[in-house]
């Protein structure tokens, strides 16, 4: 009994024709003839039909995964939370899956997920610290610009003490 598929032994060119036919939603008859015309290789229509169904099923599964990922992303889940949600889904689908699992390996996967979550929180914290630093810098620059404006003011009615008092007020210093 063979484990491989007949189409696995097709040339690369024949496989390309077949896959393009699947993508273009061509019939098995059309694809079989296109392979024969392009490469001279013969593939039975029912074989092409079976591979087409497998290809469509794989495409559907991929599309479902993309939609699920988009929904999780839209819900604001990060990578670790997505993995946890997917693991929970698989556990719901197959509750006995953990009975044969290596508990140490399973635990280490959990620890790795926690490490990733901690790194994510650390990066978020660093991002917030940088944002705070940038806001502080912008505030200091604005104060400096106001102080320079007071010092550069050509208003003769302001004495040196009044200018100093205004600058102290700008920086929140007490007299």
Write up what this structure looks like.
The structure is a single chain. This protein has 175 residues and is mainly alpha-helical. The protein has a domain at 7-65. It has six helices and no strands. It has helices spanning 12-23, 28-39, 45-74, 79-93, 103-152, 160-170. Helix 4 (79-93) packs antiparallel against helix 5. The protein is elongated and about 100 Å long.
**Class by helix and strand content?**
mainly alpha
User: Can you summarize the main beta sheet?
Assistant: none
Give the distance, in angstroms, between the N- and C-terminal Cα atoms. 95 Å
Q: Number of DSSP strands?
A: 0
What's the order of the H and E elements? HHHHHH
Rg: 34 Å
Helix content: over 70%
Query: What percent of residues are in strands?
Result: under 5%
Low-pLDDT parts are: none
Mean pLDDT equals 84
**Count of helical segments?**
6
Q: Tell the overall outline.
A: elongated
């Amino acid at each position: 009994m063979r484990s491989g598929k007949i189409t696995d032994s097709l040339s690369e060119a024949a496989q390309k024709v077949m896959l393009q036919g699947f993508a273009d939603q061509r019939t098995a008859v059309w694809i079989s003839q296109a392979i024969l015309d392009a490469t001279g290789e013969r593939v039975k229509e029912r074989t092409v039909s079976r591979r087409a169904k497998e290809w469509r099923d794989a495409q559907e599964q991929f599309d479902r995964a993309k939609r699920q990922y988009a929904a999780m992303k839209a819900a604001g889940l990060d990578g670790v939370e997505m993995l946890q949600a997917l693991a929970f889904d698989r556990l719901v689908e197959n509750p006995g899956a953990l009975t044969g699992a290596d508990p140490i390996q399973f635990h280490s996967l959990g620890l790795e997920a926690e490490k990733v979550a901690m790194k994510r929180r650390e990066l978020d914290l660093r991002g917030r610290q940088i944002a705070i630093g940038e806001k502080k810098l912008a505030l200091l620059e604005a104060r400096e610009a106001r102080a320079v404006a007071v010092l550069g003011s050509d208003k003769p009615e302001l004495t040196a003490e009044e200018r100093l008092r205004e600058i102290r007020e700008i920086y929140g210093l007490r007299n």
